[in-house]
Write a structure and sequence with these properties.
six-stranded antiparallel sheet; Phosphorylase Kinase, domain 1; globular; alpha+beta; 4 domains
Length: 487
């Protein structure tokens, strides 16, 4: 079998095809060490060039690398062969929300409220980070677990049409999916609120099982007929389909399907809509566990390499493996934007009975905020709070080691460290200056036990273990001082 059609790629075995896209197939994969299932999007390079869509694929990958939210699919790795790109992503085992709609015909208001909370939370996160999805539809929401919709976990996928936007500067590309496209997109001048319109269409379908804009015609004539109705925002609430839906729910849909985008709510305002607040699940406050808090305190004392490694582990941990941490994060995220502010972190610590930590809050915030955004995103939170057992497992450290080992040489060089620790902004050790250069040199000197100038896997494992041991010793020293004071 040729290298370009492998049964395996990197450390992943490829199995059955579970999806089909414009540029290739989506395969079910499995990590050879952990056995963890993944979805591998296989992109054919020739097809990308043929369709002149290199920019679109580049943009999709850039966005996938940036987004970190409980209700957005996680990108684990990007692997390349001469003819293919492989995007290794989180596997959502229960498939598309669209299929569940076909089965159920329609959902009750509490179920739609649950879905609305998850959809709007993910969208608010994107909009706060100046990203518009531009292709929201039920097919682009996957269900993570094999269980009832009411107990499930939505994941937003497919960022091929997504892009960064500049507030106040309209977008103009006509990104059109019939049924879901906003009227202003058809006009060629729009902003991120085009996503709100698309969600309005989705909620309409969730309530009654059919779209608000449709046509009796097929093909191009049918599309034009649908577009004509969309431009006029011409839709109705047929009694036969909507008799089970309350007036408040109808108003929620109507508020989203407003023709004038300026009068349409923002993602934050939609999340605060009275109907959503009334019908979203009442989140039980999940306090930070003593183990999570201990990990968070220890994270502050880790070195730059250990913190970077822990963030890599967190990016590769499936949501269902850190479900308790995910619930903690969601309940602490009061405004639902997918990030923790200083006030939200403080509030969460106080509700967990950990108010005494507040005096070191700024220091803790700085330690957790790996990307310097001024807020803590989902991955940063998981990196800081996951258990030592999960973070320090052989499999986790091996996966991280392979990400540091950029040229697959079997060791980590000073160039590798410079590239990873600068998040790719520096292309080698020669470009490093200041504290980072000193830290890399110190790390090599301390952990390169055989003095060959690089860090092999055993040395990297020792480096990671040492980070935890230092934290443990610091905790014991503090405990000893407290004991002495009592005596």
């Amino acid at each position: 079998m040729s290298q370009d059609n492998p049964r395996s790629v990197g450390h992943y075995l490829l199995g059955a095809t579970i999806g089909q896209g414009t540029f290739g197939k989506v395969k079910l994969g499995r990590h050879v060490l952990t056995g963890e299932k993944v979805a591998v999007k296989v992109l054919e390079k020739a097809r990308i060039v043929e369709l002149a869509d290199v920019e679109r694929v580049t943009r999709e990958i850039a966005i996938l690398k940036r987004v970190r939210h409980p209700h957005i699919i996680q990108l684990y790795a990007i692997l390349e062969t001469p003819k293919q790109l492989h995007l290794v992503m989180e596997y959502a085992q229960d498939g598309e929300l669209f299929d569940r709609i076909l089965e159920a015909q329609h959902f009750g208001e509490d179920t739609v409220g649950l879905l609305a909370k998850q959809m709007l939370s993910g969208l608010l996160y994107m909009h706060c980070n100046e990203m518009a999805h531009r292709d929201l539809k039920p097919e682009n929401y996957l269900l993570l677990k094999d269980c009832a919709v009411e107990k499930n976990h939505l994941k937003l996928i497919d960022f091929g049409m997504s892009r960064k936007f500049t507030p106040g500067k309209p977008m103009s590309t006509r990104v059109v999916t019939p049924y879901y496209v906003a009227p202003e997109v058809l006009a060629g001048k729009y902003d991120e609120k085009c996503d709100i319109w698309s969600l309005g269409v989705i909620f309409y379908i969730l309530f009654c099982g059919s779209p608000p804009f449709y046509s009796q015609y097929e093909g191009k004539r049918g599309d034009e007929d649908i577009f004509k109705k969309i431009r006029k925002a011409k839709y109705t609430f047929e009694d036969s389909e909507w008799k089970h839906v309350s007036p408040h729910a109808k108003k929620f849909v109507s508020d989203l399907l407003v023709l004038d985008a300026k009068k349409r709510p923002s993602s934050f305002e939609a999340l605060e809509h009275p109907w959503v607040v009334e019908h979203m699940p009442k989140m039980k406050q999940v306090a930070l566990s003593s183990e999570a808090m201990g990990s968070m305190k220890g994270f502050r004392k880790q070195g730059k390499v250990q913190k970077a490694a822990l963030n890599m582990v967190a990016k590769n941990v499936p949501t269902d493996k850190v479900e308790e941490l995910s619930e903690m994060f969601i309940t602490m995220d009061i405004n639902g934007d997918g990030m923790l502010s200083m006030d939200e972190l403080k509030n969460g610590l106080e509700k967990s009975g950990l108010g005494e930590v507040n005096e070191n809050l700024s220091e803790m915030m700085a330690a957790l905020d790996a990307d310097g955004s001024g807020k803590i995103d989902y991955t940063e939170f998981v990196a800081a709070t996951m258990s030592k057992k999960m973070a320090n497992s052989y499999d986790s450290i091996w996966q991280v080691f392979k990400q540091f080992d950029r040229d697959n040489s079997g060791s980590i060089s000073k160039d590798d460290l410079a590239i990873v620790l600068s998040d790719g902004s520096i292309d080698g050790f020669d470009g490093v200056q200041g504290d980072l250069k000193d830290e890399i040199m110190k790390l090599i000197q301390e952990y390169d036990k055989n003095a060959d100038g690089v860090i092999d896997f055993d040395e990297f494992m020792a480096l990671m273990q040492e980070g935890w041991n230092q934290t443990r010793r610091a905790s014991l020293d503090k405990l000893g001082k407290q004991k002495a004071e009592v005596q």
